[in-house]
Specification:
Elements (H helix, E strand, L loop, with lengths): L8 E4 L4 E4 L1 H11 L12 H22 L9 H4 L1
Antiparallel strand pairs: 1-2
Protein name: GST N-terminal domain-containing protein
Organism: Dendrothele bispora (strain CBS 962.96)
Pfam family, one: GST_N_3
Length: 80
């Protein structure tokens, strides 16, 4: 688990494993439960990296405008 307490998060009681972050969860589920629906298709690493890089290029310039507004929507207890 991350000390930042981020969501999404899962806990797998069969392996006593806790995880956060969407991609890490998807990879874990694919590795531990291969008989189920595969979430991250094999052979897509380069495509996923290109997608992440493209999203960063778009999102990073606007974080400065989005993040300061986050506390305005939190209740008092969550702001602490």
């Amino acid at each position: 688990m991350t000390p930042l307490y981020t969501l999404p998060a899962i806990y797998d009681p069969s392996t006593k494993t806790g995880l956060t972050e969407s991609f890490a969860i998807a990879k874990y589920l694919d590795e531990k439960y291969p008989e189920k629906l595969i979430l991250v298709p094999k052979g897509t690493k380069v495509l996923r990296k290109a997608h992440v890089n493209a999203m960063r290029a778009i999102m990073e310039p606007i974080w400065q405008f989005m993040l300061p507004n986050t506390n305005w929507d939190l209740n008092e207890r969550s702001e602490a």
